[in-house]
Design brief:
The complex is a heterodimer of chains A (396) and B (356).
Chain A lengths: L6 H17 L12 H13 L19 H14 L7 H14 L2 H12 L5 E4 L15 E5 L2 E9 L9 E7 L10 E7 L5 E6 L8 E12 L3 E2 L5 H16 L2 H17 L1 E2 L2 E2 L4 H29 L5 H5 L1 H20 L17 H14 L4 H12 L13
Parallel strand pairs in A: 1-4
Antiparallel strand pairs in A: 2-3, 3-7, 4-5, 5-8, 6-7, 9-10
Helix pairs in contact in A: 1-3, 3-7, 4-5, 4-6, 6-10, 7-8, 7-10, 8-10, 10-11
Chain B lengths: L6 H17 L2 H8 L6 H11 L18 H13 L6 H15 L2 H8 L5 E4 L1 H4 L6 E4 L3 E6 L9 E5 L5 E5 L5 E6 L8 E10 L1 E4 L2 H36 L1 E2 L2 E2 L4 H14 L2 H14 L1 H29 L12 H12 L4 H11 L5
Parallel strand pairs in B: 1-4
Antiparallel strand pairs in B: 2-3, 3-7, 4-5, 5-8, 6-7, 9-10
Helix pairs in contact in B: 1-4, 4-8, 4-10, 5-6, 5-8, 8-9, 8-10, 8-11, 8-12, 9-11, 10-11, 11-12, 11-13
Classes of the chains: A alpha+beta (396), B alpha+beta (356).
Chain lengths: 396, 356
């Protein structure tokens, strides 16, 4: 463990605190992701290296060397101040790292800067009605017609499709190849003719995701990441980044702080919830789990920087992180009793109603991005090298 | 900058692992636990002394190797992995911290050479059970300690009701003791009764008591980390080999998911133990809170794995023949000693000012 807490880090913490002290009021609180306030805040964070910190300068990032302790300090101070650490979303957390890894120079130049600045919003075209956990059986097709791909088919669970500028989309380009080798990874604009979007209302009663239909959608030939038929490898790289981001322990820390604050103010029978030993124990139990996941995150990051193996530690983050977050949000609801039910326009809403909506939203994330059960297949078969389920031969 | 074990620490773990695999395999553990090999844990300790294990945390000036508590945690993990019967936590970790605070170089040197072992009787100062407890006048002790760690040692580290720490020889005047059988036969426990027993005061500083306690908790957690890892390894190996319905049971999702859940819950425990052990020496402001959470979290995860691994083994897991219960009980022992999860979590809350 080389975690020297030198004066450089003390100074860095002071610098972050100073920044938050001065600029905290400019931070967005639940505004639309397209709003000036959100975009200005994002720009300010990039300029100061608090988000997109390690993205190279030539692609619009801050260009700092990766430093797990500084990353931790930023996360902690932003969590303490309960201030947004900038935009997330599928473009920033999934596509950008994938382009950095597998994109062409032109693609990096074209897409990364506007994406991290929040100007270019992305959605992900992966799942289909017949291809969920068995994603590789997807059927949306793309055939080459001169210099263009022509895309036909249907995607589902396309989060933010209704506000996205672009989509990264898995399509079948080699119908005769084995299913994993017939897929390609295309990027195209969402205002291309032939795209129809129908909102899908989820259990939170928001329409966060959609069904997306493609009818003869024309896409320039060069808007492909990787080679023809290599889309599955690109998709897996991206799913790795998605799984890293879906269980983000720093976001859990922010929510844990909010929960602790809630318990200091909310009362039952005149007693603060934090003074109830049963509730307090449940809070501490969650705190221990958040702590363990944060150390896991630091280990994974450190292993990546030092070229060491932490495969299993990375594999478990989505499963553990989303389950933890669901439990954390659920604890807030439990301990508020009837008040925990308040939703939407209820005058007794706490923290903007986020406890109920996040509780449900994280059940969605337990399912999305590869269900917990699929994660357990991956952990046991790839992580623990256990035998695969025997394949069932197709009937007829 | 690195969050992980150094090359030296990995080598240390490997060498202890190899030694225990060859010299103290389950058959020998079983022999010691059932009393076939008398004084077994003391003789294992002599063998470990040749590897320098008792000397780990003792400064070079006293004949030790002057390593860190993270190094000790790495060793504790291996002891848990092999359910090693040895008085490690008391002798090599908790006692040296108190002895260093007292400047007792003679005893430190004796520990380093493997000439003396130390049990730990501080549970009453953490949370008294059975109305046990010890009072002192600074020179003599009166009262009772139950369920002490590393019973059968040459001396005992004892805390009185104020948290002051004393060293008492096992043959001191006015000291009577008897063994107390627990589920875990790999680490003997027992009871000490003091009747105006002469004792050497090591420290009446609360910080020393806390340092000893925190270290003990982190080492118990590290022991659980190793024991739980072994239970996962055994479950996975068994599930790959055992066939039912003409296929390995590990190909059934019901079984493989149990294994995945065990691995997923234990994996974050590894960096947690590393960090907690590292903090004991290097990040004092975080040491107490991290030790409490690590003790509690490892106890919870360990209990889950102990149960699940046994279930994966089916009926064989329940037998003495396979011996899986040695790890099950080892994890159970670590959970109960020096504060069960609810107790240490309450302490964690208190440390953060959440208890009024």
């Amino acid at each position: 463990m080389d975690l020297s807490h030198g004066s450089e880090y003390e100074a860095f913490r002071t610098e972050v605190q100073q920044f938050l002290h001065e600029h905290k009021d400019q931070a967005p609180r639940g505004e639309n992701m397209r709003s000036r306030k959100v975009l200005d805040w994002q720009r300010l964070l990039i300029d100061n290296g608090y988000t997109a910190r390690t993205i190279p300068r030539e692609y619009g990032g801050f260009g700092a060397d990766p430093d797990i302790l500084k990353g931790r300090i930023i996360a902690e101070e932003f969590a303490n101040a309960r201030v947004s650490q900038g935009l997330g979303g599928q473009g920033i957390s999934m596509l950008v790292p994938t382009l950095l890894e597998l994109g062409t120079e032109e693609q990096k130049q074209q897409f990364i800067k506007p994406t991290i600045e929040g100007e270019m919003v992305w959605c992900q075209g992966y799942s289909e009605p017949g291809a969920g956990s068995d994603l590789a059986s997807l059927r949306t097709s793309a055939t080459l017609d001169g210099d263009e791909w022509v895309v036909n088919g249907q995607k589902i669970w396309t989060s933010t499709a209704h506000i996205a500028d672009w989509i990264f989309c898995l399509v079948r380009t080699e119908p005769d190849a084995p299913k994993h080798r017939g897929i390609s990874f295309l990027l195209f604009r969402m205002d291309t003719p032939g795209i129809e979007i129908r909102p899908l209302v989820d259990m939170t009663l928001a329409a966060n995701f959609n069904e997306t239909f493609f009818t003869d959608v024309h896409v320039p030939k060069h808007q492909i990441v990787g080679e023809r038929g290599q889309g599955w490898q690109v998709a897996n790289a991206i799913l790795g980044h998605e799984r890293d981001s879906l269980g983000d322990p720093n976001a859990s820390l922010t929510r844990l702080n909010a929960l602790t604050e809630l318990m200091k103010h909310e009362t039952m029978g005149g007693q603060r919830l934090i003074d109830n030993p049963v509730y307090r124990d449940r809070l501490m139990k969650i705190q221990g789990r958040v702590m363990a996941m944060r150390f896991n995150d630091m280990r994974v990051l450190s292993a990546r920087l030092n070229n060491k193996n932490a495969t299993l530690a990375r594999m478990i983050t989505k499963l553990q992180g989303t389950e933890l977050r669901h439990d954390l949000e659920g604890l807030a609801i439990d301990i508020m009793g009837e008040v925990g039910l308040a939703y939407q326009d209820n005058p007794y809403l706490r923290d903007g109603g986020s406890w109920q909506s996040q509780y449900m939203y994280f059940l969605g994330l337990i399912i999305g991005g590869g269900t917990s059960q699929i994660q357990k297949n991956i952990i046991s078969e790839r992580g623990l090298e256990m035998p695969r389920e025997p394949k069932v031969e197709k009937q007829g | 900058m690195e969050f992980g074990l150094s090359e030296e620490q990995t080598l240390l773990a490997d060498s202890v692992h190899r030694f225990l695999e060859e010299q103290v395999p389950l058959e020998r553990v079983r022999g010691i636990a059932t009393g076939e090999e008398t004084d077994g844990s003391q003789s294992v300790w002599q063998e470990l002394a040749d590897l320098g294990i008792p000397a780990l945390l003792i400064p070079e000036e006293q004949g030790g190797v002057g390593l860190s508590q993270l190094d000790a945690a790495v060793v504790a993990e291996m002891f848990g992995y092999h359910t090693t019967p040895a008085p490690f936590i008391g002798t090599a970790v908790m006692a040296p911290i108190a002895l260093k605070a007292a400047g007792d170089d003679t005893t430190l040197a004796a520990i380093a050479k493997g000439e003396t072992t130390v049990g730990v009787a501080i549970g009453e100062a953490v949370a008294s059970r059975l109305d046990a407890g010890v009072t002192s006048n600074g020179e003599r002790l009166t009262g009772k300690c139950v369920f002490i760690i590393n019973y059968g040692s040459d001396r005992y580290l004892v805390a009185d009701d104020t948290g002051a720490l004393f060293m008492v020889a096992s043959d001191a005047d006015g000291l009577t003791h008897r063994p107390l059988t627990t589920v875990d036969r790999t680490r003997p426990s027992g009871e000490l009764v003091f009747d105006d027993t002469p004792a050497q005061l090591l420290s009446s500083d609360a910080a020393t008591f806390e340092a000893v306690l925190d270290a003990g908790r982190v080492m118990l957690a590290a022991d659980t980390l190793g024991a739980a890892q072994n239970m996962i390894d055994q479950a996975v190996a068994y599930a790959k080999e055992r066939e039912q319905f003409n296929r390995p049971i590990g190909s059934f999702q019901a079984v493989k998911h149990m294994c995945a859940e065990m691995a997923a819950s234990l994996e974050p425990c590894r960096p947690m133990v590393w960090y907690a052990a590292h903090a004991l020496d290097e990040i004092p402001e975080e040491a107490r809170l991290t030790a409490c959470h690590t003790k509690a979290h490892l106890a919870e995860v360990g209990t889950f794995i102990a149960k699940t691994s046994t279930e994966v083994h089916g009926g064989m897991g329940f037998t003495d023949l396979v011996g899986l219960h040695y790890w099950f009980k080892r994890i159970g022992f670590n959970r109960q000693m020096l504060g069960v999860p609810e107790l240490v979590r309450e302490e964690a809350a208190r440390l953060q000012g959440l208890v009024v």
